[in-house]
Amino acid sequence: MQKNILVVDGQGGQLGSQIIKALSEKYPAGRITAVGTNANATLSMLKAGAHQAATGENPLIVACRKADIILGPIGIVIADSLLGEITPSMAVAVGQADAVRILLPMNKCDNIVAGVADQPTSLLIQDAIAKLAQFMV
């Protein structure tokens, strides 16, 4: 069964792009939707290989209803994070989605995750992709 994977990112979309590239290599059968909080993030993720992409609050809310798995920085569940790009409605949509959420503990934008060592982004993405394996069956 094909899984609907939603990747959410903001700012320049670099994290989302790296996630999408890793997903495309490891799970080519997955259907990847990218939602950026701004046009630059969306375009970056689309260029990285997302099957479809959109920008903003309402597309994120709609995509969350259709997703089996959501990946992104931990800030996507915190209102006003990513320098204010995540609205309260966006955070609620991700948090209440009937999907598995795989959140990367990015210690940026005034959100610090205690108990998590600072790691290179590439290692965080490898770990996220490894955790995704149990949900791709």
Notable traits:
alpha/beta; Rossmann fold
Short description:
This protein has 137 residues and is of the alpha/beta class.
Helical run tally: 6
Shape: globular
Structural class by helix and strand composition:
alpha/beta
What summary fits the major beta sheet? 5 strands, parallel
Unreliable sequence segments: none
Query: Ends: how far apart?
Result: 8 Å
Q: How big a fraction of the residues is strand?
A: 15-25%
Report the average pLDDT across residues: 92
| Spatial strand arrangement across the major sheet | 3-2-1-4-5
CATH topology: Rossmann fold
Query: What is the helix fraction of residues, given as a range?
Result: 40-55%
Order of helices and strands: EHEHEHEHHEH
CATH architecture: 3-Layer(aba) Sandwich
How many runs of DSSP E, i.e. beta strands? 5
Q: How many domains make up the 3D coordinates?
A: 1
Return the CATH class.
Answer: Alpha Beta
